[in-house]
Design a protein that fits this description.
It contains seven helices and seven strands, in the order E-H-E-H-H-E-E-E-H-E-H-H-E-H. The chain has a single domain, classed as Rossmann fold. The protein is globular. Helix content is about 40%, strand content about 20%. The protein has a five-stranded parallel beta sheet with strand order 2-5-1-6-7, covered by helices on one side. A two-stranded antiparallel sheet has the order 3-4.
């Protein structure tokens, strides 16, 4: 089993990179475990408090469960991946069954910040992008997908996204084996990453 971690700042283009890799690999060979599915359940908090949660801090992620699920998959055990809602900031009662695949991609802003998670990765990737480009993507995404106002998005960016990026996410770049500048627009880097995975699959 090949485990690849793909990190990078909010709006850096991680999802685009993952999507382009998935498109080029054989169907049924690879599965993605999104870090966002492993946000801690906050249903015990009032909605007002939930909306103020700092989702860019490592403590917001239940890394213990993510590490356990990866170890289970390595042992050939099917896991139940949580479903997290950004609108209610809670986990759903339903889960998604994930079967062991030959390639597992763990994708999320904080996946390189956790030492136990890094130890399980065969390849660590950091998707890099200019702060201005990331901000534009964050504004568009949060307004369209998460129902937030422009003012709320900007306030969150200044208070949590930017400082957490500088404190946790940017420093995690030093753990990366491969850095992809310009995110999903860097076709050469995506080609290299895809070829690496294909070669590993052939050699097994």
């Amino acid at each position: 089993m090949l485990i690849i971690g793909i990190a990078g700042g909010t709006g850096s283009g991680k999802t685009t990179v993952v999507k382009k890799i998935m498109e080029r690999l054989p169907e049924g060979e690879v599965v993605v475990l999104p870090q966002d599915s492993y946000y801690r359940d906050n249903s015990h908090l009032p909605l007002e408090e939930r909306l103020e949660i700092n989702f860019d801090h490592p403590d917001s992620i239940e890394f213990e469960l993510l590490v356990k699920h990866l170890n289970d998959l390595k042992r050939g055990i099917t896991i139940q991946q949580p479903i997290y809602s950004y609108l209610s900031c809670t986990r759903s009662a339903e889960t998604i069954p994930i079967h062991p695949y030959r390639v597992i991609i763990i994708e999320g802003i904080l996946v390189l910040t956790n030492p136990l998670l890094r130890e399980l990765m065969n390849l660590k990737v950091f998707v890099d992008a200019d702060a201005d480009d990331r901000l534009i993507r964050v504004i568009n995404r949060d307004i369209i997908e998460r129902g937030r106002s422009v003012n709320k998005v900007m306030e969150r960016y200044e208070c949590t996204v930017k400082p957490m990026h500088l404190q946790f996410i940017e420093p995690s770049k030093r753990f990366a084996d491969l850095i992809i500048p310009q995110g999903g627009n860097n076709h050469i880097a995506i080609d290299i990453l895809t070829k690496y995975i294909e070669n590993k699959l052939k050699s097994e």
